[in-house]
Write a structure and sequence with these properties.
Strand content: 5-15%
Oligomer: single chain
Structural class: alpha+beta
Helix content: 55-70%
Number of helices: 11
Radius of gyration: 26 Å
Distance between the termini: 100 Å
Number of strands: 6
Strand order of the largest sheet: 1-2-6-5-3-4
Shape: globular
Length: 282
């Protein structure tokens, strides 16, 4: 009688997995994948916290030459563009890279500009005061937006009382105050996009409605901003914004764009891929 052929011994964990069947194996793989994803997310959150502790929400104003230090000397494209930028602007004020930089940069720059323009301050205050009712009329719940609007108005009234630049900077570096302003500016942007949805629907990709776009890409914190956001906020507040675009395009200098086109800007921002800072003209 031929001896029975022995099967090679398998590792214990493989035998256990086989005895449990393919469905259980899939579950274990899914659990491992979920654990890995959670570990990555936790690591990213730690990195974000480290950034938060190491960089201010809005920095002190520094000489435009500060930008040279962020690129190597042999990075000819960026060094050339910084030189071009320096022919028009003398200083820059950086913002934290947290996905809210456009709104934070705009908010600070606009209120800072109003410190020296009392007539424009009164116009802007009236627009801001009315904006809450406009949002409510569009369907935003009043109890949801009330606190954000109040914080926004408080800052405008602080400027009206002729606070110092240092006091305004301190307010924008207080996390709750600064974030409430960002939230309200996001709501204003969303409200204007939805109000003018017939126009903006042609610029929304992915088969989404304007309302869906707003709920996914405008209202949530940390969502980055593009042309459509800038256009809407500028129109909502009747403000002119100039953005200087500095990227790796080999065009010799920075490209500027005014929102809306043909306007006389009072807010000047620097855009580098994924980020906005504040500029100060010479």
């Amino acid at each position: 009688m031929a001896s029975e052929q022995r099967q090679p011994k398998q590792p214990k964990d493989v035998k256990q997995a086989q005895s449990l069947g393919p469905d259980r194996v899939k579950v274990e793989v899914q659990d491992d994948t979920q654990a890995y994803d959670e570990a990555i997310m936790a690591q990213q959150e730690r990195i974000q916290q480290e950034i938060a502790f190491s960089t201010p929400l809005v920095s002190n104003k520094v000489n435009i030459s500060f930008l040279n230090k962020e690129y190597t000397d042999d990075d000819n494209v960026y060094q050339r563009k910084i030189q071009d930028l320096g022919s028009k602007y003398g200083h820059v004020r950086t913002t934290r890279r947290d996905g809210n930089c456009f709104y934070r940069a705009f908010g600070y720059s606009q209120l800072e500009a109003l410190m020296d323009n009392p007539k424009e301050l009164q116009r802007f205050k009236a627009v801001a005061a009315k904006s809450k009712n406009d949002l409510v009329a569009l369907g935003f719940p009043e109890f949801t937006i009330e606190d954000f609007h109040s914080t926004f108005m408080d800052l405008i009234e602080m400027v009206e009382r002729q606070i110092s630049e240092a006091e305004l900077l301190a307010a924008f570096n207080e996390q709750n105050t600064s974030d409430y302003v960002v939230v309200y500016l996001r709501l204003l942007t969303s409200g204007y996009l939805q109000k003018e949805s017939a126009f903006f629907e042609h610029f929304v990709e992915g088969g989404r409605t304007v309302k869906e776009f707003c709920s996914q890409e405008v209202e949530p914190m940390a969502k980055e901003s593009d042309h459509i956001h800038i256009i809407a906020l500028a129109q909502a507040l009747n403000i002119s914004i100039r953005v200087e675009y500095m990227d790796r395009g080999d065009c010799g200098g920075v490209n500027q764009h005014d929102f809306p086109e043909g306007s006389s800007p009072g807010v000047f921002l620097l855009y580098r891929p994924g980020h906005y800072d504040i500029l100060y003209k010479l």
